[in-house]
Amino acid sequence: MALCFQKGTQLLKHCSLHVSVRPSGSHYLLFGKGFQTWEYSPEYALRSYTYLLVHMVPVWVYNHLLQPNRILLFYFCRCLLGLLCAFCEVYFYKSVCQEFGVQVGRLMLAFMVFSAGLFVASTAFIPSTFSMYMCLLSIGAWYQRRYELAIFTTALSTYLSWPFAALLGVPIALDMLVRRKQFSKFFQWGAISTAVILLPMVLIDSSYYNRFVVAPFNILYYNVFTSHGPNLYGTEPWTFYFINGFLNFNFVFVAALLTPVFLEERFLFPIYPMICLAGAITVDALQKLWFRFLVRRATKAAHYLSHTAPIMVSAILVCSLLGVSRISALYNGYHAPLDLFMELSNVTGDNKLPADQNINICVGKEWYRFPTSFFLPDNRWQLQFVKSEFHGQLPQPYSKGLNATSVIPPHMNDMNKEEPSRYIDVAECHFLVDLDLNTETSWEPNYSRHSADWTVIKSVPFLDTARSHNFFRAFFIPFVSSDYCMYAPYNLLQSKHLKLGKHDPR
């Protein structure tokens, strides 16, 4: 239980819009202000507001009862996600013990607890994480022969979060239809699940978009039946996925590859627990082979566990050490944006800002590390973008008014084409977030070194990947990594030309 809360509060890995946009959309539902991406435009309607509401109802209750700092709302949501993940993992663990035995279950649990991939994925506010929860429940229910629950949770994952997760239900469908011939139960619960989940979703989403919307169909159509959908934001070579799998699961990922089943990268979040299970089965099989061919001939021992404990202990020890090392490296290297944006609350209190003054906090090349609108102290703070070397489409604030979710925003496209309307002049920025890598281009000046224009009010070390050793930036080794990893100052800058509040600190 303590670990699930640690996951929720200690790490928000460096990512792009898939981390920040869902919380920002939720921020709009709570406070009437937030960022909208083209997927939430009524013209495209690829995303479901029902998914956001499911997460925001407990946050709304917490906010109205205690009215805490907005950052606490964000972490409250992440802690709830961690708690939900913990319950799903316990259910899955019990099911694995029932299906494969306690030994496999214990190995899998150890691999899951110390997996860097699951540490990140378990509290991420993205649809594939919710699909991972549902995968834990659906596969667990399948192992317990509770087919009704398996179908319902698969449908919940498919309709509410990520339609591509339906592929994870194929083994369940084949088992019911081909092996057990349970046609009636399969189609009956498929229809019940659709009626209970999809119909309310359509009603809720259609009311927000002010037109008939089936969000799962829209995202499926966009990614499968359009020429630009699946490849719009780039693809990676196979080596990227192998390295990523090893970083997240170390040798467990390699062991999992020795099992028959493997899926592509886009399904990795939902199948992260399956990787741990496959790795546990492989280690258990290795123990049995070791006992059969090297131990049993020399002894009459009755059970393989009596003589193969060192294999199990070694596997868990290596997995845990590498996992903790990877998690520590992520935290030490990439935690700076969270610390920096938390400083805005102190700035608000120190400057005693007028209630009617808007404050522009700007990001340029660091746009994709902005955590979420929950880190902006109140509605006076406006996140703004200044031009950088990035040439894709950035999000824009929701329109003003109660019906903003149904208004088609201008200057949006589904081709990731740059929209110049997103940018403001850097001279209009009260604050600016900048990573000082001691380099600059025409569109990315080194603002931190422009002391005539900016004052550094907070600086936090951030990993400079280009100047750091590949291994030691990936895995933290106490007393050693510091000699091979270089850090750059991640700075919060305050303009020297724009007055701020009644008591300007300059």
TrEMBL record:
Pathway membership: Protein modification; protein glycosylation
According to the record, the signal peptide region is: none
Q: What biological-process GO terms show up in the record?
A: protein N-linked glycosylation
Q: Where is this protein primarily located?
A: endoplasmic reticulum
User: Which keywords appear in this protein's UniProt record, sorted alphabetically?
Assistant: Endoplasmic reticulum, Glycosyltransferase, Membrane, Transferase, Transmembrane, Transmembrane helix
Residues that span the membrane, as ranges: 72-92, 104-130, 150-174, 186-204, 238-259, 271-291, 311-334
Protein name per its UniProtKB record: Mannosyltransferase
